[in-house]
Amino acid sequence: MKKVLLVIFLTANLMFSAFLTVSAEESQNDIKEFFITDTVGNSIYENPRILQNPKPGDEETIINNPAGANCAVVIQEYGINVPALKEITMTAEHARDTLDGAGYNIKYLRGPLRIQVWYAITKWIPRYIGGENKVFIYICGHGSGDTVYLRPWLKMTAGWLDTQIDRIKNKYSNCMVLVESCHSGSFVDDLSESNRVILTSSNTTGLAHGPWDGECYFSDAFFTYLETNPGGSIGHAWEFADEFVENIVNTDPANQGQYQNVSIEDSGNGCYVGNVFVNDALPLTDSMGEEDGNLALSLTLKNQDNNEEETEMPISVSNLNFNPDPCQKQSCYTISDIYNAYR
Predict the structure, then answer these.
(1) How far is CA 52 from CA 55, 86, 92, 150, in A?
(2) Domains of the chain by residue range
(3) How far apart, in whole angstroms, are the C-alpha atoms of residue 251 and residue 259?
(4) Residue 296 φ then ψ, to 5°
(5) CA 275 remoteness from chain centre
(6) Nearest-angstrom CA–CA distance, 56 and 75
(7) DSSP, residue by residue, 136-192
(8) How far apart are alpha carbons 2 and 14 in whole angstroms?
(9) CA–CA dist 332, 63 (Å, integer)
(10) Which residues make beta-bridge pairs with 284?
(11) What's the order of all strands across the beta sheet hosting 143-144?
């Protein structure tokens, strides 16, 4: 009897192991890329279907240079009943389009599983980056301390993300990470590293604001600056977005007591800087006496750093894709606390 039970037990274990192996293979197959070769150098889109009817887990791949180029991974929270899903999607698509215009090879993930994020960073980027190029990782979704949501039930932590980026740090010259979420400043101490610029739309305890029918304010201003200034530095784009938040967002009476404090860190010591009610000019000195912002000021999205003249952008609602309140006054629109749902 014992021998029969042992045989049954071993057989069951073998069958279960085989099931796990097949499931793992199927999971890997789900995220393999199939490209239509474009010999004239146009962007190559994987699965165009997802542009019309996206669902959680869908991926979009844009290849501007199959031989290797700067690479970006754009990650957005996506799923059923995600508050402000339209606004999150608009913001992530703005980031994608700006990076596409700068010639990046891009992997755009909508509501991905963590295995998809792992694959995009640790496998896909090394395949398409080529040479000493840059990496830009953009994340947009609801957040809490050291956490952003990929789907309403699925989190990604700052420490886990840092582990994945560490796996490729010998593949890039510089890495830029922008986290658009409430409490995104909590990502800085984990992600901080030499040759990295960490940009966040809030500090560790603050909120990140946006309108109900438009893009998240910080990211919208940041990428609009870079679109308008093709040779503009990452540091000046951050300054512009910071100035917009201070002069437009934080002066709105609807935000009293819920001010947005954007942050930056690029010294590698894990201490971010950024002041509320101040139009910050980089570099800024952090709490450890080191300057943040010098690396960001030296970098542009493109490889030809600082070789194109920048155009100064005035702080104006007309520069961004907003839908003001019916009162039609520049300073009058509702800024709702749409990012606090999962705090």
Answers:
(1) 10, 14, 16, 20
(2) 39-319
(3) 9
(4) -60, -40
(5) 22
(6) 11
(7) EEEEES-EETTEEEEETTEEEEHHHHHHHHHTTTTTEEEEEEEEESTTGGGGHHHH-
(8) 18
(9) 41
(10) 292
(11) 143-144, 147-151, 154-157
Instruction: Say which CATH topology domain 39-319 has.
Output: Rossmann fold (3.40.50)
Better-scored residue on pLDDT, 123 or 37: 123
d(CA 14, CA 287): 57
For residue 104, the one-letter residue type is Y
The amino acid at 251: T
pTM of the model as a whole: 0.80
The one-letter amino acid at 175: C
Alpha carbon distance, N-terminus to C-terminus of the chain: 56
C-beta separation of 299 from 199 below 8 A: no
Residue 21 has a pLDDT of 36
- 265 vs 282: CA distance, rounded Å: 11
- Cα separation, 41 vs 28, whole angstroms: 28
CA distances from 113 to 56, 70, 153, 224, 330 (A): 9, 24, 11, 29, 40
Per residue in 139-185, pLDDT tens? Answer: 999 999 899 999 999 999 999 999 999 999 999 999 999 999 999 99
For 148, half-sphere exposure in the C-beta direction (CA atoms, 13 angstrom radius) is 32
Strands 154-157 and 143-144: unpaired
